[in-house]
Write a structure and sequence with these properties.
The complex is a heterodimer. By secondary structure, chain A is of the alpha/beta class. Chain A has 10 helices and 13 strands. By secondary structure, chain B is mainly α. The chains are: A alpha/beta, B mainly alpha.
Chain lengths: 294, 244
C-alpha cells in the first residue's frame, strides 16, 4: 500500500493557483524530501495531506483512506511550519499530553530521548529557545508513533549543530520502517536526508528522483569556454547537453555527460574552443535551473 | 478527554492574570465591600454581607468562565497550537467540550473562596439546603458566560479577544447589578439589566440567601441565554476550525 497518493490535485486561492495538477505517489517506508522555493506550493500540499486544507480538485489519499481518516486513526504525526507551544506547560507535560491522544504511542522517556529533550523535560515552554521549541514540536510529531511523519521546513529556526542532531533524530525514527515526508528549501538537507527528492515549483512537480538522478538529469556538469564572437548554433545538439547559456562572450553548457560533450565539441564542430573548464554541478545548481521563473 | 481537561486547567492555574484578576479580585472586593456595607439589610430581608457574597461570587464566576475560554482559545487559534492539535486524533467536538468543562471547573476556586471569606470574616450563615442549592446553581449557571467567552475567542484574535472579554465581564457585572443594585440605576439601564443573563443569574442567588424560591422567569432567562449562546458558540467554533 502507498503511504501517500495525490491524484491530479489542484488548489487555488481566488485567482492564485497554489498547487497545479499534482500527481505524486510515495511508497510506505520511504523518506521523501519536498524541495522547492518559497511559494512553490509545499505548505499547501502538506496542508491537504494533513486534512487541514481541502483540494479544489483531485483526490488525496493517505495509507489507503482520506487524510481525515488517517489523522483520526493516529497514523499521522506532523510538525507544521509554524506554531507556538502552550507557554504555561512544561516540555514533559506537553509531550505527554499529545502522546496520550494516540492509540499506540511511544514511551514518554523514549520520545524525550529521541528529540534530545531529556534534560529540558521540566522546563516551561515559554523559557525555551527557538531551536529547543522546534525539538519539542518534533517530539510532538513522533510521540504517537505515527506511520507517516510529515515535517514542514523543520529546521527553519535551528543553528547548524541543532540541524545535524535533528536529522539524526529524524533518521532514527524513519529507520523503523516508517514513511517520512519533509518540505525544505535547503538543497543540502534534501540531498543528505532523503532517498527521494521531489522538486516542486509554481505548484507543479518539476523533477522527481534520487538527488543524484536530479543532478544528472539537469546537467550534472557544466562545460564552460570562451566563445568570443563565434556563432552558438548547434551547441544544444551536442551529446549530453541539456541547456546552453551564453553570457559575456562565454558559453556555458549544462551536460549529463561531460566526456561526450567535450569530445564532440572538439571533433564535431569547427569552433575555436579556448579556456575550457569543466565543473561538477551540485544539487543547488540543478535546483536553481529547475525552479527558475520561465 | 480527562488528559486534555487536566492540561487546560493546569495552564490557567499557572497563569498569573487568571490567579490575580479572576480568583483574587472577587475575594478582595468582597472583603472591602462587606466591611463597609456588610451590616445592612436588603429589601427582601437578607443581610448585605450575604447578598454581596452572591454578587461577588457571581462576578468571579462570570470572570472565570469568560476569561478562561476567550483568551486561551483566541491565542491558540492564532499561535498554531490548534493546527498542531488538528493533526492528532483528537476530534474537533472534543476540543470545545473540553474547554467548556474546564472553564466550569475554573469557576469553582473563585466561587468557593468568596463563600469561604463570607463565612469566616462576615459570619454569613446559611442552612445546609441553601448552601447546597446556591453553590451548584451559581456553578452551573456560569454556562452561558463560558459559551459567550468561547464565541469571543472564535471570532476575535488574541489581544482583541482579551479586551472584548474584559469589557464583557465588566459590562455584564455592572449592568447585571453585581456592583450596584439595579434599583439605583436610571430607568433605561434597569430595563437593559433585567434581560441580561448576569442579572437573572445573580438574582436567583439573592433569592436563595434571602430564603425565598427563585422566580421561574429568572431561571427561564438564564436557561434561554445558555441555550442560545451555546448554539452561537458551536456555530462560531465550527467556522474557526475550518479556518485553522
Amino acid at each position: 500500500m502507498n503511504a501517500i497518493t495525490f491524484t491530479d490535485v489542484s488548489k487555488s486561492y481566488g485567482d492564485v493557483l497554489a498547487v497545479d495538477s499534482l500527481d505524486l505517489t510515495v511508497e510506505a517506508g520511504r523518506t521523501v524530501a519536498l524541495l522547492g522555493p518559497n511559494g512553490a506550493g509545499k505548505s499547501t500540499s502538506i496542508g491537504m495531506l494533513l486534512g487541514l486544507t481541502r483540494p479544489t480538485r483531485g483526490r488525496v489519499e493517505v495509507l489507503g483512506g482520506s487524510p481525515d481518516e488517517a489523522v483520526a486513526r493516529g497514523d499521522i504525526g506532523a510538525m507544521p511550519q509554524t506554531g507556538d507551544l502552550i507557554p504555561e506547560l512544561t516540555v514533559r507535560e506537553t509531550v505527554d499530553f499529545v502522546r496520550r491522544l494516540y492509540p499506540e504511542p511511544l514511551g514518554l522517556d523514549e520520545v524525550l530521548a529521541m528529540a534530545d529533550l531529556t534534560d529540558l523535560a521540566r522546563r516551561r515552554a515559554d523559557r525555551l529557545s527557538g531551536g529547543q521549541a522546534q525539538r519539542v514540536r518534533f517530539a510532538l510529531a513522533v510521540a504517537g508513533a505515527p506511520r507517516l511523519l510529515v515535517l514542514d521546513e523543520p529546521t527553519a529556526a535551528m543553528d547548524v549543530e541543532s540541524r545535524l542532531r535533528f536529522w539524526e533524530s529524524m533518521r532514527a525514527y524513519a529507520a523503523g520502517g516508517r514513511t517520512v515526508l519533509f518540505a525544505t528549501h535547503y538543497m543540502q538537507e534534501a540531498d543528505e536526508n532523503s532517498d527521494r527528492v521531489v522538486v516542486i515549483a509554481r505548484g507543479r512537480i518539476v523533477a522527481d528522483g534520487t538527488a543524484d538522478q536530479i543532478k544528472a538529469g539537469n546537467g550534472g556538469h557544466v562545460v564552460r569556454f570562451s566563445l568570443g564572437g563565434q556563432a552558438v548554433a548547434g551547441l544544444d545538439a551536442l551529446p549530453g547537453v541539456v541547456a546552453v547559456e551564453v553570457a559575456d562572450g562565454a558559453a556555458l553548457l549544462r551536460t549529463a555527460d561531460p566526456d561526450a560533450t567535450v569530445a564532440a565539441l572538439y571533433r564535431g564542430t569547427s569552433l575555436d574552443v579556448r579556456d575550457l573548464r569543466i565543473t561538477g554541478a551540485d544539487l543547488e545548481d540543478a535546483f536553481l535551473a529547475l525552479t527558475r521563473e520561465p | 478527554m480527562p488528559n486534555h481537561i487536566r492540561i487546560e486547567a493546569l495552564r490557567m492555574l499557572r497563569n498569573k492574570r487568571y490567579a490575580i484578576f479572576v480568583v483574587g479580585f472577587p475575594v478582595v472586593f468582597y472583603l472591602v465591600f462587606s466591611s463597609v456595607w456588610g451590616d445592612g439589610i436588603s429589601a427582601d430581608g437578607a443581610r448585605a454581607s450575604a447578598v454581596l457574597m452572591v454578587s461577588m461570587g457571581a462576578y468571579g464566576a462570570i470572570a472565570a468562565s469568560m476569561m478562561s475560554t476567550a483568551v486561551p482559545w483566541a491565542q491558540e487559534r492564532r499561535s498554531g497550537w490548534l493546527r498542531q492539535l488538528r493533526t492528532t486524533p483528537l476530534p474537533g467536538w472534543s476540543i470545545i467540550v473540553t474547554k467548556l468543562v474546564t472553564s466550569l471547573l475554573l469557576v469553582l476556586p473563585s466561587l468557593l473562596l468568596v463563600c469561604l471569606a463570607a463565612v469566616l470574616f462576615q459570619g454569613v450563615r446559611l442552612t445546609a439546603a441553601e448552601w447546597l442549592s446556591l453553590i451548584p446553581i451559581l456553578w452551573i449557571g456560569a454556562v452561558p458566560f463560558a459559551a459567550l467567552g468561547l464565541t469571543i475567542g472564535s471570532l476575535l484574535p488574541g489581544d482583541t479577544a482579551q479586551s472584548a472579554a474584559m469589557v464583557g465581564v465588566f459590562g455584564l457585572a455592572l449592568l447585571g447589578g453585581l456592583w450596584f443594585p439595579v434599583e439605583i440605576m436610571p430607568e433605561a439601564m434597569r430595563t437593559v439589566a433585567q434581560v441580561l443573563p448576569s442579572f437573572s443569574y445573580a438574582d436567583i442567588g439573592r433569592h436563595i440567601v434571602a430564603g425565598s424560591a427563585p422566580p421561574v422567569s429568572e431561571v427561564v432567562t438564564v436557561v434561554a441565554w445558555a441555550a442560545g449562546l451555546c448554539v452561537v458558540a458551536v456555530l462560531t467554533y465550527r467556522r474557526a476550525l475550518a479556518r485553522a
